[in-house]
Every structure is written in C-alpha cells, then in structure tokens.
Amino acid sequence: IADVARSKGRDAAGTGAVVRAAAPIGQGAAEFAASHLLVEEIDARFVDGRVVARRERRLGAIVLASTPVRPSPAEGSLAVARAVAADGLGVIGWSPAADALRRRLALVHREWGAPWPDVSEPALLARLEEWLAPELAALAGGASVRSVDLAEPLRRLLPWPAAARFDELVPERLEVPSGSKVRIDYPDATDDGGRPVVAVKLQECFGWAETPRLVDGRVPVLFHLLSPAGRPLAVTDDLASFWSGPYAQVRAEMRGRYPKHPWPEDPWTAVATARTKRRLEGA
C-alpha cells in the first residue's frame, strides 16, 4: 500500500480507511518484509459441543494456512475451560435426569445446608475438578457433549453416609391413596422459595387428611388437584381443610361436567380411585 487515507464514511468494514494506491506483493516477499509478524500455532476451540483445533500460520491478522489437527490434552483442556468459564455448565447441557437430580439436591441443601452440597452454578463451577474431572478430560480429548450426562457426575457430590437417606428425604415419586405413584416436580435449583408440587387427579386423593412433608417433615408438598381432563381445580398444601371446605363447591361445579367420575358428598370415606364410576363399580 502506497497511499492510504481515512474518510468520513464507513468504508473498509466501518474503519473509514481508503486505499488510493497499492501494488500486489507475493507471499514470500510479504513474509520476509514482516517476518516479526509471522506466527504458527494451534487454535483449539469448543464449537458445537466439542473441541476442534486447527494449525494456523498467520502474518499478523492474515491467515496464510489453516489445517485441522488433533489438539493435545493441554490444548483441549484449555478450550473446554474457556468455554465453561464463558458460558457456564450450559455448554454441556442438563439432561432431564440431571436437572431432576439437581433440583432434589438443591432442596435438601436449602433446608439442611451441610453436608448436602450447594449445587448452584457458582458452587458447581468452583468444584469442577472434584465432581466433573473425568467428563472434562473426555471433552478435552474430543468427545461430544452428547456423550456426557451430568446426572452421574452430580451423584459424586452426595455426602456419605447421609446419602443413604437421599431418596427418602426427596423421593422422585409420591404414592397417593389410589395407589398411583405420582412424580414430584421439584422447584428449579435457582428458586430459593419454591415448593415441591404433585399434580394428581382429585379423585385419587379421597380420604387423605395429612399433607405429606419432605426432607424429614420440613417441606409440605403443594398439591395441584386436577379434573378428570387434567385441568387444575384447586391448589393446596392443606388437604384436610380442602375436603372440609372448598371441595363442596368444586363438587357442585364439576359433577355435572364429569358425570362419569365419582364426586361423593363425603370425600373422607370415598374410595380413592383413578377409575370412572362404571369401572369402579365393576371392579
């Protein structure tokens, strides 16, 4: 380039640079003239869920050659570390199983603290090598995030011997009077005040007076009592009060809409069931 100036416009990718006179130069001459700008290095990055690397030969910002290569363990580890530092554990992703386990762990930690682990994002990132080292090594070696499920690594944080009671303190499912085992929806790990929720058809809970409590009685379950069509009819953490009060109004509104299902006057003595009246009578 023999003559370059700056204009008031946004030419040259917004820089305003305007080249008025220039002459071509061969690569060899350019490398000789600017040898101090010539570098060759491995550029390893975490892209689309895995580490990819290229050997690049550059003259300043100009890439002269780029060839895909296999990164060394150190280069791969650095690429993974940079990705996790920039975007958190989201670069690996939470499977449904891992997310469910994390939610349960978060509730126990919220209620009891130590020895149950803090599974907030900052706490997990601070202890990466303690619970995720094998998976990080696999990713550094070129494995895809699709091969990594965070559920098993999270279990490494369970404290022993307290972990033996984990499923008792925060079970995955709750058995209701009808005999059904209904999944418990735990609050998000970032929700400091959330409650565990059980969504179940109202008829399956007839006669249930005492609201179940989790984490050794510390946390009452919040019930979403549903219609036969699965629509919410009531939300309560006090089943006894619901049967004694609001149930009568719910019954009055719903028995005409869902006549095939039981709506007894006395919910205390009725048989809890997931069946229709005909199927219940024929059983």
In short:
32% of the residues lie in helices and 22% in strands.
* DSSP, total strands: 12
Can you list the strand order of the major beta sheet?
3-4-5
Alpha carbon gap, first and last residue? 93 Å
Beta-strand share of residues: 15-25%
Q: What sort of overall outline do the alpha carbons produce when their principal axes are compared? A: elongated
What is Rg? Answer: 31 Å
Largest sheet: 3 strands, antiparallel
Q: From N to C, what is the helix and strand string?
A: EHEHEEEHHHHHHEEEEEEEHHH
Number of domains: 2
Oligomer: single chain
**Helix residue percentage:** 25-40%
Secondary structural class: alpha+beta
Q: What's the overall average pLDDT, rounded?
A: 89
Pick out the low-confidence regions.
none
- The total of helices stands at 11
Describe the protein.
The chain is built from 11 helices and 12 strands. The longest helix is centred in the middle third of the chain and has 17 residues, at 96-112. The chain has 283 residues and is of the alpha+beta class. The strands form 5 sheets. It has a 3-stranded antiparallel β-sheet with strand order 3-4-5. It has a 3-stranded mixed β-sheet with strand order 8-11-12, with no helix packed on it. Helix 3 crosses helix 6. The mean pLDDT is 89. It has 2 domains: 41-170, no CATH class; 172-282, no CATH class.
